[in-house]
TrEMBL record:
Molecular functions (GO terms): RNA binding
SUPFAM superfamilies hit by this protein: PAZ domain, Ribonuclease H-like
Annotated ranges, domain PAZ: 128-231
Family to which the UniProt record says this protein belongs: Belongs to the argonaute family. Ago subfamily.
Pfam family, one: ArgoL1
Record-linked Gene3D superfamilies: 3.40.50.2300, paz domain, Ribonuclease H-like superfamily/Ribonuclease H
Segments traversing the membrane: none
Annotated protein name in UniProt: Piwi domain-containing protein
PROSITE patterns: PAZ, PIWI
């Protein structure tokens, strides 16, 4: 809790560049009386002894700090051990636990739960760069690939092989080591990075594809083939696929998790003992609501009737034979394809008859429930013309996503002779960078909704396994974006919210997202509210506010900003 005497110790601090040796003086700062906490727990003192709880919390975490393979993050501890698993894309999962000490009715409770965090794999920098952008096949990276590398590498610490210095990446250069030039004052001439390393270190570089990186203050340029990623770095931004793999890795059965927590608790330090018996609480299963579609009108998700006979029951989410409550009309739309045109174009531009087999965009199969996309849209209640087919723009290699989106919207306007309502975007994978640029172009620049699909999942240029279910799920998202309504609760809202009775009421949801940076970064507040009597239509507002504030400062004006016009959908 404190040092009973003053002691001078010497420690070595590793960081960027050479390790530094520092002298540290340990002094007693304060004496924390645990008796104040005991008085509070007995009801003799109304003021909670936060300092005492904080001190005990530190004591209980003390043992983990001795482990050199342990990474403390806030209240959590993560370990580099045999349970580390790769999740692809140059990332891996470390497992650990988070704990906190809380006063409760029965005394002090030690709250422990398993935790997982994503870390960068300690690997060759070139391998990580190829993981992010794929093989560039003798060419330099495209502008989109360069932006992907910049976002992925900025702030990542690398260790240089030629001098073992550790530096953080500041930016990604334009050219490779054979293209990037600088003025070598010592040699008195301009030379490339490759020429410098051959002259200075007798190192012959070979990679002509990947760009150089600027590290430290930005004045030092390094070739990626001479760098490795330093271990022990957290990875905060994950792709959809990495997130799914992380969830699989971290998932534990309740009984396995309980045994794991017991092992964590079975540690003693500073003479403190923790009761190994876990607290028990009463649990109950909530009654599920019934849903109402256009067809079927009364659907029980638990029983999945009338779908049980088809083997799709017990709460499964299946829309293949469902018609939306209120359909929409899709009279003008286009397709922007960022997937490989060699495989995807035939699926997107030709009918079944033209292609010689089922295509994604139009099958012309007999019957009302054919599996391809336009047929599925119409079957679900989204009225979509079958002639003409929507125009498809294949994204040029060096064009920006925004330009491809603009061309698609213009092609739709010319094809259907009316403004484009929606752009269907075919992505090559689940990468976040291209997705963000597409959404920014549609939402902020063009003001047109977009719906993204992944080529492999949709069977575009790939075998069409599972395409009917995928098409139905995409149709559900598109119907909502086109002002339709997919489903509502079968029971009247008044029966689900007894305090309000027959009077209209609004369901509000609100949250504040805080930045990972310092206090000078703003927080983002968001509010969403129901706009009709069945709570199926929503309006949203987003606002910036002072960082680290949990309370939404401008809530009144955010909600009031919807105004009477937005609330006109209230018809009872």
């Amino acid at each position: 809790m404190y040092a009973p005497f003053t002691e001078l110790v010497s420690v070595e601090l590793e960081g960027e560049g050479r390790p530094r040796r520092l002298s540290v003086v340990i002094r007693r700062v304060d004496i924390i009386p645990i008796a104040s906490l005991q008085s509070f727990m007995k009801g003799q003192d109304e003021e909670l002894a936060y300092h005492a709880i904080q001190a005990l919390d530190v004591v209980l975490k003390h043992r983990a700090s001795y482990n050199r393979d342990c990474l403390p993050v806030g209240r959590a501890f993560f370990f580099h051990d045999d349970q580390v698993r790769s999740i692809g894309g140059g990332a891996e999962v470390w497992l650990g636990y988070q704990q906190s000490l809380r006063p409760c009715q029965t005394g002090l409770a030690l709250n422990i739960d398993m935790a997982a965090t994503a870390m960068l794999e300690a690997s060759e920098l070139t391998d990580y760069m190829y993981e992010k952008i794929g093989d560039v096949q003798g060419r330099g990276p495209t502008p989109v690939q360069t932006r992907i590398l910049t976002r992925a590498l900025k702030g990542v610490k690398v260790k240089a092989k030629h001098n073992q210095f550790k530096k953080a990446i500041r930016s990604v250069c334009r050219g490779s080591p054979f293209e990037e030039k600088f003025m070598n004052e010592a040699a008195g001439k301009e030379m490339t990075v490759a020429e410098y390393f051959l002259l200075q270190y007798n190192i012959k570089l070979t990679n002509r594809q990947l760009p150089c990186i600027a590290v430290g203050n930005g004045k030092v340029i390094l070739p990626p083939e001479l760098c490795t990623i330093a271990p022990g770095q957290r990875r905060s931004k994950l792709t959809e696929l990495q997130t799914a793999e992380m969830i699989k890795t971290a998932a534990q059965r309740p009984d396995d998790k309980a045994r794991w927590i017991d092992r964590v608790v079975d540690q003693k330090g500073f003479g403190l003992r923790v009761d190994g018996r876990q607290m028990e609480v009463q649990a109950r299963v909530l009654q599920n609501p019934r849903l109402s579609y256009g067809s079927p009108a009364n659907y029980d998700p638990k029983a999945s009737l009338p779908f049980a006979a088809a083997g799709r029951g017990f709460g499964s989410w299946n829309l293949r034979d469902v018609k939306f409550l209120t359909g929409s009309q899709l009279g003008s739309w286009g397709i922007a394809c960022f997937a490989n045109p060699r495989f995807a174009e035939a699926d997107l531009t030709r009918t079944q008859a033209e292609r010689g087999g089922p295509s994604f965009i139009k099958a012309r199969l007999p019957g009302p429930r054919s599996a391809e996309f336009i047929d599925m849209l119409n079957a679900c209640g989204v009225l979509t013309p079958t002639n003409p087919l929507p125009p498809c723009i294949m994204a040029p290699r060096n064009a920006s996503p925004a330009e491809t989106m603009r061309r698609t919207a213009e092609a739709a306007r010319q094809t259907f002779n009316r403004p484009c309502q929606l752009v269907l975007v075919v992505l090559p994978d689940t990468g976040q960078q291209l997705y963000k640029e597409v959404k920014q172009a549609g939402d902020s620049m063009l003001g047109i909704p977009s719906q993204c699909v992944v080529s492999k999942k949709a069977g575009i240029g790939f075998p069409a396994r599972g395409r009917p279910q995928y098409c139905a799920n995409v149709a559900m998202k598109m119907n909502a974006k086109l002002d339709g309504c997919n489903v509502k609760l079968a029971e009247p809202m008044a029966t689900l919210a007894p305090p309000f009775g027959p009077r209209p009421f609004m369901v509000l949801g609100a949250d504040v997202t805080h930045p990972m940076g310092g206090e000078d970064m703003p927080s983002i507040a968001a509010v969403v509210g129901s706009m009709d009597a069945s709570a199926t239509r929503y309006a949203a507002r987003v606002s910036m506010q002072t960082g680290r504030q949990e309370i939404i400062v401008d809530l009144k004006s955010m909600v009031g900003g919807w105004g009477p016009g937005v609330l006109a959908g209230w018809g009872g």
